[in-house]
Amino acid sequence: MDLAIDASALIAVIANEPEKDALVELTEGARLLAPPSVNWEIGNALSAMLKRNRISVDQATHALAVYHQIPIRFADVELEDSIRIAAEHNIYAYDAYLLRCAVKYVVPLISLDKNLLALARNIGIKVIEVPK
Question: Is the domain 2-128 a CATH 3.40.50.1010 member?
Fold first, then answer.
């Protein structure tokens, strides 16, 4: 099965957050798909953790090494369609890229972002929620 995955789920795995085990179990055997923007979201999340002194540079580097081991197929999404989604739902482009990815490739979405999952569900995307 193919799954669209967002940065929140990936960060939970690479930062060893409480949802990690459930995410690994839910994605086991799946082919993960994401828009290329996920790379920059991962970098931004790690830099935010550095700025808040939640992690060290060594920990960020280790997290990136773990991230690079996750087999993700980066799939192109159309900027025009993504901007339309962003405008229609009053969301940021990064979320619209992910929604467009799930729609374009007809795959479920896995995320820890409850608002994104609710919107995805409302527009007809199958979602996979991670139990707490």
Answer: yes
Domain positions in the chain:
2-128
Determine the average pLDDT of the residues in 20-41: 96
* Residue 6: DSSP 8-state: -
Beta bridge partners of 31: 2
Q: Distance between CA 96 and CA 120 in Å, rounded?
A: 10
Strand order in the sheet with 127-128: 72-74, 31-34, 2-5, 109-110, 127-128
Query: What is the biggest distance separating any 2 CA atoms in the chain, rounded to whole angstroms?
Result: 41
pLDDT digits (tens, 9 = 90+) for 39-72: 999 999 999 999 999 999 999 999 999 999 999 9
Q: Which amino acid is at 54?
A: R
Q: 37-51 and 7-14 helices cross at what angle (nearest 10)?
A: 50
Written as six digits, the tokens of 48 are 């935010």
